[in-house]
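Supplementary notes for students who missed Thursday's class. We covered one full example, reproduced here. Read the sequence, then the structure, then the short commentary at the end.
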Amino acid sequence: MDRKQKLVVLGIIEDKEGRILVSQRIDAKIPKAHLKWDVPGGTNEFGESLKETLQREIEEETGLHVETLELLPDCVSKEWEHMEYLQHTLVFCYHCRLIDGKMHLNDHKINDLIWVFPREAQKLDLLPTTKVFIDLFCKNK
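Structure (token representation):
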């Protein structure tokens, strides 16, 4: 089985009311991720900083503009078994503040976007990596 590595940057986006944006994934190729809740973000591209990746991904996926604040003090290493290969993913996460934008669904891997309070997000069926970061975010609030 082929092996690949990927670097992903996520953002816990907080609005003025203290809610965070969560997204429900559609990913039938990875049954353990399909219909799980996540936070916006995506894959780092060649030459991008982590902040550039995050701002680009959030705007593409949601239509929102954010200010990236602090990098949460953890990195999650996770292996995902795809049908054709094994992927090792390193995931970083920033706390972000919503600036503006008009929210839309513009990603074929996102089923839904909702604003919830962080403690409510902890009760959702989260991706394992996302759970680590939301728990860390709640602990530091």
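Commentary. The longest strand covers residues 85-101. Residues 60 and 106 are 7 Å apart (CA to CA). If anything here is unclear, bring it to office hours.
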